[in-house]
């Protein structure tokens, strides 16, 4: 199982039939980008509240993190061909004529008023049926839609994993290089301290006592623990990349720990000439790689 990116896009198009006749078509799209949590946003036609609740449930079951926009666009051009309820309009006109004769009132029937009567337009009569059919179809299509989205997020995740593995390789190489230089750096550090102490106290001093003090200082500047922890973090990072699932937050935390080790390494080896300069270069390179990785990890689910 590989990691997944939070970036993805998917679209499905479908047609809805009401009472066996094709009435409308629609497009359902979903787009996701990175976010600390799962943030769902919907743009649906009026009357689709129940569908939104169902879609929200399905998305929560399938996605872990990301800002997700789901849009339902409906083509209602078929309604332009909708007719009117002839019996209702005829009844309205007949009632108008009867009232006019009975009461002797002059005037003409108002067609606009007649068409505003409930059920006068046949398209309005079918609106509830269309909404119900549309809702059922959307619920059916959200499965294939999410399958497309997750497939794209998986492909993006593979690309992210390849980039991050490259970063880990460079971090591991830099860590190994620092480990090779460690013994020589400690010797230079001990030599420098001895020279400085000798210059301060003169030739007459307790050499054994000075060497003991030097040993203490050298131990404080030892970077073996930082190198060991850096190696452990790198291996743990690789394991998380392979395990997949909700790895983004864990990977980000590990990178913070790696950055802390790199900072400590630099602080302990700063000021040492010769090969110490090389360690500084390697430490700064580590920090640069870690920062690049953090940018990539922000998009890991």
Give a structural overview.
- With 301 residues, this protein is an alpha+beta fold.
- The protein has 3 domains: 8-79 and 129-151, Ribosomal Protein S5, domain 2 (2-Layer Sandwich), CATH 3.30.230; 83-122, no CATH class; 156-297, no CATH class.
- The protein has helices at residues 49-62, 86-103, 111-115, 122-125, 127-201, 207-220, 224-243, 248-269, 275-297; strands at 8-18, 21-33, 38-43, 66-75.
- It is rod-shaped and about 135 Å long.
* Count of individual beta strands: 4
Strand order of the largest sheet: 1-2-4-3
General form? rod-shaped
The largest pleated sheet is described as: 4 strands, mixed
Number of helices: 9
Order of helices and strands: EEEHEHHHHHHHH
Helix proportion of residues, in percent? 55-70%
Low-pLDDT stretches are: none
Radius of gyration: 36 Å
Sheet/helix structural class:
alpha+beta
The domain tally reads 3
Mean pLDDT: 83
Distance between the termini: 13 Å
- Percent of residues in beta strands? 5-15%
């Amino acid at each position: 199982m590989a990691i997944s990116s939070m970036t993805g896009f998917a679209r499905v198009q479908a047609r809805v039939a009401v009472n066996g006749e094709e009435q409308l078509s629609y497009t359902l799209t979903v787009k996701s980008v990175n976010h600390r949590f799962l943030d769902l946003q919907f743009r649906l036609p009026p009357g689709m509240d129940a569908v939104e609740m169902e879609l929200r449930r399905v998305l929560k079951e399938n996605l872990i993190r990301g800002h997700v926009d789901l849009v339902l666009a409906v083509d209602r051009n078929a309604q332009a061909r909708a007719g009117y309820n002839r019996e209702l309009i005829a009844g309205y006109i007949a009632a108008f004529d009867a009232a006019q004769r009975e009461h002797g009132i002059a005037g003409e029937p108002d067609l606009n008023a007649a068409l505003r009567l409930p059920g006068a337009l046949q398209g309005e009569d079918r609106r509830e049926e269309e909404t119900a059919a549309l809702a059922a179809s959307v619920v059916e299509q959200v499965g294939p839609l999410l399958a497309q989205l997750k497939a794209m997020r998986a492909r993006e995740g593979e690309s992210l994993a390849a980039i991050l593995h490259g970063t880990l390789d460079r971090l591991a190489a830099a860590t190994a290089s620092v480990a090779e230089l460690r013994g020589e750096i400690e010797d230079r550090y001990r030599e420098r301290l001895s020279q400085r102490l000798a210059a301060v106290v003169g030739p007459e001093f307790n050499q054994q006592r000075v060497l003991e003090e030097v040993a203490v200082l050298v131990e404080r500047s030892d970077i073996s623990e930082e190198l060991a922890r850096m190696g452990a973090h790198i291996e743990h990072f690789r394991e998380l990349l392979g395990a997949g699932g909700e790895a983004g937050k864990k990977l980000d935390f590990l990178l913070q720990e790696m950055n802390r080790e790199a900072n400590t390494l630099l602080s302990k080896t700063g000021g040492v000439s010769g090969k110490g300069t090389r360690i500084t270069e390697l430490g700064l390179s580590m920090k640069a790689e870690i920062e690049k990785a953090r940018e990539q990890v922000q998009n890991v689910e």
